[in-house]
Design a protein that fits this description.
This protein is of the alpha+beta class. It contains 4 helices and 8 strands. The strands form 2 sheets. Strands 1-2-5-6-8-7 form a 6-stranded antiparallel beta sheet. A two-stranded antiparallel sheet has the order 3-4. InterPro entries: YdhG-like.
Length: about 140
């Protein structure tokens, strides 16, 4: 049976999705991140699956042969955190995270409690770096 990705572009409006976020602070932060990443990436926002807002896209193929598409940069206003999805490659990522401010991070995710806890300029810089890095590693 072929694998079909659940996280793929949908016609849902990112603005409408953000407007439906229950927590007022998370909703306000999500609107700010939407504007920030739209400007920083130069790509229009698109819903990927039910809860990720992505900017741009790239194709990947794993060593296993599995391939698919993913956003170059993304974020999601989750219940517990605002989650950023950026490239997880190289030492440059560590430099960005060291300058970002209060956050937690996983392999490909960065978790923020509040946008006010971090430097938004670092988010924009990291988004541009993420796009450049992913395009270099996964050329069309």
């Amino acid at each position: 049976m072929a694998y079909e990705a659940k996280t793929k572009p949908t016609p849902v409006s990112p603005q409408a999705f953000i407007d439906s976020v229950d927590h007022p602070g998370r909703r306000e932060d999500a609107h700010a991140v939407l504007a920030l990443l739209t400007e920083a990436t130069g790509h229009p926002p698109v819903m990927w699956g039910p809860s990720i807002i992505g900017f741009g896209k790239y194709r990947y193929t794993y060593d296993s042969g599995h391939s698919g598409e993913a956003p170059l940069v993304g974020f999601s206003p989750r219940k517990a955190n605002l989650v950023l999805y950026m490239a997880a490659y190289e030492e440059a990522r560590d430099d960005f995270l060291a300058r970002l401010g209060k956050h937690k991070s996983g392999k490909g995710c960065i978790y923020l409690n509040r946008l006010a806890d971090v430097d938004a300029a670092v988010i924009a810089e990291m988004a541009r770096w993420s796009i450049k890095t992913l395009k270099e590693r996964h050329p069309d």
